[in-house]
């Protein structure tokens, strides 16, 4: 297939969605290439970014993004951004008496943001007399007219500095580690509810549903029209939505609107949830569980597919311990940490429809996984993929034995019985490593994987050994995710700067350079395990008498009868994943064919 740019519009609904989205956009920004002589990357950044011009004629490259959050959630970030000049407010007064002005001190920026401001003012934007082809802005360095020396960019300086920013104690909101500029149409603040405090909180599904009307609806439609109208080949939308609070209700209405207005486009929705919530309680835990159940059902109904994304061990009130990765020193309770791991996985899982060549569009991915009404899928990841530096892929997979390398990032553990309806597996970041066995002819191979002659065949054979009869799509990308500042330094000292395992003793690990890239393996899966997860959630929610336990959840809707109907629909959705019903349906189809 050709490299035609099929644009994607991203929506981030909620504070944790914006945490994940900020890491994700930082990863995209770090992957941009500003050297005219460098080869084009595997991923086409123009699908996600848009070109523009400031009032001063400077070329800009900003995400095609709408980010919604609550009042008080931005801290140091201006809602309209800083790239485009905005008109100053009219300060003319008709009052002729004495005027006293009270000015609130702005929030203090952390060390990373302060140094980013310093780098940003050091020549990132081209001067008016600089000529730069608009079609090359994504991969061409900014250079002075008449001079053959390329100017440094923020990307190149951050990468060259190799400085670690320890932001664990200073990250309060997602903008505290945002390294890119946003378009003025990107950030949308919902002023009806507060980000923090004890009053006016967006906590229940019904509150979110009721939001998408009036000025909030008009504002969202205006922002959507702005980004949609400049697209030539709109591929679809990817939506990140907080699942455990009132944003689940808002996301249900937003995905319904997108389905009605842009039917036929891909609509991939990721319902995200942190491991913990600040100031939680037993009543709020009930809210979270109900929001997850109602949001999962409604957003799945309105999307091409819906995938929960979380390090939580489950979506119930008392879940198992959070997912842990052996080569990461990650604190799952820190949103700054947990969101970075999910962003790495999301970067890998979404690469199949962002490829420059041989890209599989969104609808092809969803059609392969969301079959027979099974529109909820689960995600698994290995962050990083454990491979020895200088090793080969067959050896890395053989070293795993009978244990699959990935862990659940959808609160849905695998059943381990080889039963699955469909999978999409992506492995990226093995640039410079051998994808096939380097054994010489005549040498006895240690396993059947060493017979395969391509990386795709090696990975396919390995997955087939665990899921013999499952429809499978496999993608391999050589480029790794660049984890440059301000990505948290959560990596084991056993890793090389490229993210591979070192062939050294533990005593030598402390002298290693920071990890700058990471190989990642991900799997999107439709399996009976999803049905068990949905069934467990439905039973727990149906057993609650909300009017007796927490009547406040019903204040803004939905009505008890509507919730009962939703629980019945969730039960029916869970039954779609039962293998005995699938076989029965298949046998009936065979009888009809006869």
UniProtKB/TrEMBL annotation:
Residues in Misato Segment II tubulin-like domain copies: 6-117
CDD domains cross-referenced by the UniProt entry: misato
Subcellular location per UniProt equals: Cytoplasm; Mitochondrion
Q: Name one Pfam family in it.
A: Misat_Tub_SegII
Keyword field contains Repressor? no
Mitochondrion is among the record's keywords: yes
GO CC annotation: mitochondrion
**Gene3D superfamilies registered for this protein in UniProt:** Tubulin/FtsZ, GTPase domain
Report the InterPro entries cross-referenced here. Answer: DML1/Misato, DML1/Misato_tubulin, Misato_II_tubulin-like, Tubulin/FtsZ_GTPase_sf
Q: Which family does it belong to?
A: Belongs to the misato family.
Q: What does this protein do?
A: Involved in the regulation of mitochondrial distribution and morphology. Required for mitochondrial fusion and mitochondrial network formation.
This chain belongs to the protein called Protein misato homolog 1
Organism name: Carassius auratus
